[in-house]
Amino acid sequence: MNDDLISVAKILNFHGIKGEAKLGFSKGRENQTASLSRVFVKKNNQYKELNVSYVRFHKHFAIVKFKEFETVNDVEDFKGCDIFLPKTEVQENLDNDEYLISDLIGIEVYDEDGCCLGEVSQIGENAANNILSVKDNNGKEHLVPFVKDLVPVVDLKNKKIVVNNIEGLIS
User: What angle do CA 13, 18, 23 make, to 5 degrees?
Assistant: First the structure.
């Protein structure tokens, strides 16, 4: 089951005394978080299904009431646990030009002339954007800013990424 689930939030703490949970989630995912109805929480390598009564926002966090949580202690038992959704549900809510990291790892990277440069080994981020780490055939890692000007094509169906290999990017 865990290969079909994607982490989308984390239970940070309880909120108030009525069993509400304070969730941390990725910036820009407010709509997805607001529409939660059924999630899975992982504790001790076991998944437990939770049903959402309501979601509201306070500062930069989501306050969620799960039907299964009645008290502060119920939430406290799951403090620090990740919240998961089925991968297909997450994929349906992605915007254009948004991808799951797990879908990008291992994809081959080509230049605009069709020459294979290597494959995506990991995804990092900096303050401005995400970074593709491309491992070439010699095992050397190259960092490519994951922006449209440098990465014009991401073809998940054919497992292919095309980069504009400007001088010095991947040599």
Answer: 30
